[in-house]
Amino acid sequence: MIEIGSRNNAPTPQHPTQDIYIFCFDLSRPGTPFCFEQSIGGGHANQGGARWLALDELDGWPGEWREHLKKADCAWVAQLIDAYPGTDQTSLVSMLLEQHSQPVGRLKAIGNWLKRNIHVGGRYGI
Question: What is the pTM of this model?
Answer without folding.
Answer: 0.77
